[in-house]
Structures are given as C-alpha cells and as structure tokens.
Design goal:
The complex is a heterodimer of chains A (about 250) and B (about 120). Chain A is built from 9 helices and 8 strands. Chain A is α/β, with parallel strands linked by helices. In chain A, strand 3, helix 4 and strand 4 form a beta-alpha-beta unit. Chain A has one domain: Rossmann fold, CATH 3.40.50. In chain A, helix 2 packs parallel to helix 5. Helices cover about 25% and strands about 35% of the residues of chain B. Chain B has a 3-stranded mixed β-sheet, with helices on one face. Chain B has a 3-stranded antiparallel β-sheet with strand order 4-3-5, with no helix packed on it. The chains are: A alpha/beta (about 250), B alpha+beta (about 120).
Chain lengths: ~250, ~120
C-alpha cells in the first residue's frame, strides 16, 4: 500500500535504491544538540534523489503489471501524438498513454477517439513531467490489458531530459522541419535518448535536413543509438518503429 | 525553466539534513553541476537566491562547482577531461568511452550552525 495516497502501488523501499547515496553524518553532531561551532557536513546526494526514488517506484509498478514504459520527448509539434494515433495500425501490442501538456486535454481526446486508453496530465506552468505526476496519472490508467505505456512528455527539448519519470526507455523525436542542428543545440536530451525518430520524413525533399549530419552529431553524444526515419504516410517506416518497440519490450537493450 | 523545481528539491534536502543534525541554520551549500546535467548554473543561482529567503537556507551561500566531462576511453585507455558536450576521446577520437563525471547534479557539502 502506497503511503502517500493509499493506492495499491507498493511503496518503493527507500533503503533499497542503489542510486541512493548516504550522508556521511558525524555521530558527534547527531548526538550532541549543543552544536556551537559551524559544522561541515559532507554528503554526496543527487539533488533529484526524491524524484528518482519515485521513478523507481513507478518502474516497479509497470514491471509488476508486465508493462514496458517509454518516455516520448521532443519539441512541441514534432508529431508525438500523431505517431501514437497511428501506431496501433502497425502493431498487435496494446498500449495506453499518459499525456503531459500545460493546458487542455486535446491530446488525450485525440487518442481516445481512436480507442486508445489515455489520461491527460495538465501541468499548469510546469515545463516537464516528473515522477510524482506520472505516479498520480497511473491511478487513472488501467494497465491490466496493455503491453506498453507511453508517457508523452511536455513538448520541450530541455527540461524533461533531467527527470526520470519511471519509464524504461527514452524515445526522442526530431521532425524534419525543425532542422538537423537540434541535436547539437540540445545535447542533454539527445544524450539521454535510447532511440531518435526523425519524424515527418516525407518532408525531407523540401527542407535542408541531412540525415548524415544528424548521425554525425549524434555519434558525438550517443554513439550506439539507433536513428529511425518515420512518416505516418509511409507504412514501411511505421512498421520499423513498431519493430523497434517490439524489440525493446521488457526493457531489453 | 526546471531550475525552480530543482532548487525546491535542493532546499528540501538541505532542510532534512539540517534537521537530522539538529542544526537550525545553514550557512553554506556546495553543489556540483555537470556540464551535461541539463541545468543552467546562472538560472539555478537566481532561483536559489529567491527561494532560500523563506527558510533555513536564508543566509546560505551557494557554491557551484561546474564539473567538466570526464571520459575513460576503452580504445586507448586514456582519460579525457573537457568542456565540450561530446563523449569523443580527445586522444584517439574514439567514441567507445565511458562518462565518469559531468552528467550529474549533486549536493556535496553543507555548513551547518545552531544559532
């Protein structure tokens, strides 16, 4: 039973997290309330430790339900929702979607219209999803009959990169009209990616987008990563994306 | 602008550590920010100066150590330390490297006081 909200998601044990570092506390300070001098306390603590523990808790929840979770990140308008609206035609895998946007439930509505289970998180002013927001959304999503849960992050190539939300793999989309220089401009996001999807690839003839340049930039940050060109108008390319998701079920490398 | 969220998490952590050590004042907060951690130091500092006013970190000085990338090359076994956001080995240009440091945001040290 979760201590925060009484849900059935089992609470992740604090002390079990391997990434959880421990403060080296001087015993004298702890036992002596008369702390007269300045004391220096050396700690090595991840600043987002609390988020990371919650993320691990979410991941455990997905695993208990045999669900693989993918975090979809990109700029706004690069085609995350459109990809999810169309992907079901190319795969037998069932998926649910957690949507993150500042306002409106338009994206979740678009997916529901296609018969895909979706829940919208409205972040208000927050520029990214964190593990706590995804946890609350999990209360509204039925994972029993799905193989995959997509977390469609807030459209933003900066902030979401810093937050583990408890998914297994990071999928970063880059659309052709945005330009191939985005990889170099937003290195942290592309460094964190497990796959990069070059979306709207049917527009390639109309833009100066170089796949070679993208690969060259990506190699400097994330050398072993796969890059897949995709357009919803090209069924073969959608199949390739479906194959990638299939291959990475269960968090496989 | 996720720096505000990060500072909120940092201050919460400081408060917890101060409480565990029976201190009621924090005079110094040392953090380490990797150049590939995804955080902008100047924005983080502004956020810290604004958010610290309400609590135990009121008079705390924030020291930021900006950590360059430290790479261990598996091809030539040399180490690279550089400021570029690239994991390419400076010695042999191999991309078969492991990042040892420069990707994390860490709280390193606190100076505590009981006033």
């Amino acid at each position: 039973m979760c201590q925060d909200c009484g849900c059935s998601i089992t609470r992740h044990d604090h002390s079990l997290s391997p990434s959880h570092s421990h403060a080296r506390v001087d015993d004298n300070i702890a036992t002596n309330p008369q702390l007269n001098d300045k004391k220096t306390l050396s700690v090595i603590h991840k600043i987002l430790d609390k988020n990371d523990i919650e993320a691990q808790h979410n991941r455990q929840h997905f695993e208990d339900k045999s669900v693989t979770a993918f975090n979809l990140m990109s700029s706004p308008g690069s085609g995350k929702t459109t990809l999810l609206e169309n992907l079901f035609q190319y795969t037998d895998l069932k998926y649910a979607v957690i949507e993150g946007d500042l306002e409106t439930s338009r994206d979740a509505d678009r997916l529901k219209a296609k018969g895909i289970e979706a829940f919208q998180i409205q972040t208000g002013a927050a520029c990214h999803l964190d593990a706590f927001m995804v946890h609350s959304a999990l209360h509204h999503i039925n994972l029993e009959s799905v193989d995959i849960c997509f977390v469609e992050n807030v459209g933003n190539l900066v902030c979401p990169a810093s937050y583990d939300v408890g998914t297994h793999k990071n999928v970063v989309l880059l659309s052709v009209p945005e330009g191939d220089d985005k990889i170099e401009k937003y290195p942290v996001m592309f460094r964190r990616a497990d796959v990069v999807l070059i979306t709207k690839s049917d527009l390639m003839p109309h833009f100066d987008f170089s796949i070679e340049e993208s690969k060259a930039q990506l190699k400097k940050l994330n050398p072993d990563i796969e890059l897949i060109e995709v357009s919803i108008k090209d069924p073969k390319s959608m199949e390739n994306v479906a194959i990638w998701f299939n291959k990475h079920l269960g968090g496989n490398a | 602008m996720h720096e505000y969220s990060i500072v909120t998490a940092l201050i919460e952590q400081c408060e917890k550590l101060a409480e565990q050590n029976s201190a009621n004042k924090i005079t110094r907060v040392d953090i380490k920010l990797g150049i590939l951690s995804g955080v902008e130091p100047a924005l983080l500092e502004t956020a810290f100066e604004a958010f610290k006013l309400e609590g135990i970190c009121h008079d705390a000085q924030l020291n930021m150590q900006i950590q360059p990338l430290v790479l261990q090359c598996h091809s030539c076994n040399e180490q690279t330390i550089h400021q570029q956001r690239s994991i390419v080995c400076d010695h042999c240009q191999s991309t078969n490297t492991k990042v040892l440091d420069g990707e994390e945001m860490l709280l390193m040290q606190l100076e505590l006081e009981q006033s």
